[in-house]
Amino acid sequence: MARDLARRHALRLIQIKAAAPGNRHTRSMSRHPLLRDVVIVVAAKVAVVIAAGWLVFGPARRPQVDAGRVETRLIGPPAASPSAGNTVP
């Protein structure tokens, strides 16, 4: 019984094929075969998104904001004073 089990185990070990060290076409079993392709596509997409963001929201596209413009936008234009000479007869 033990001898038969050892023989089966030996046959299994013989059937396992090991990759040659210089063989480029074999990949490690722990790496997914599409890993390199997925990493390249994701890196390209990230580069495109960053470039689009820089072109759309970059410093050249930002409006100049100062306190007067913010006040006018939030509160409204200043009211005309009656001493300005705009009186109706």
TrEMBL record:
The keyword Transmembrane helix applies. This is Uncharacterized protein. Keywords: Membrane, Transmembrane, Transmembrane helix. The lineage of its organism: Bacteria, Pseudomonadati, Pseudomonadota, Alphaproteobacteria, Hyphomicrobiales. The chain crosses the membrane at residues 34-57.
